[in-house]
Structure formats: structure tokens, C-alpha cells
Amino acid sequence: MLKFCEFWAIFDFDLSSGKIDYIKTYEHCDSEEQINKKEEEGFYYMNLKINLSNRNFRETKIITPKYRHELFL
């Protein structure tokens, strides 16, 4: 069984449209060859109104629908 040893995550949230793009890349470290696994997900989150005056009031937790990753704003 291969073990994931490192991962990178990219999270992009467009405030005007509510579109979230999330990409998470895993790397296997048990094998000699380079094996990567990538999870890409794009969805819309419209329940949030953020502007410059209220951006630090509370921490918002978003769970991605496909892979169930937790994102915090």
C-alpha cells in the first residue's frame, strides 16, 4: 500500500461570483518513481457576503461537496 507523504492545496474564492476552485495534489513517497494524485473541484458558494469592513468578523467553514474537504475563510 502506498503512503501519501506530501500534499499541496490551492484554494481560489471569487468574491463577486461566489465560485470556489479547489485543487489538492498528493505525492507518494514509498516508491522510486514520481506518482501524483490530483483532486480538482469547482463549485459555487452563494451564502456569503464579504466586503472589506466585515471580512474579519467570523471564521467561515466550507465543506466541499465532492471530496468533503474543509476550507476556512
UniProtKB/TrEMBL annotation:
Name of the featured protein: Uncharacterized protein
Organism: Cyclobacterium marinum (strain ATCC 25205 / DSM 745 / LMG 13164 / NCIMB 1802) (Flectobacillus marinus)
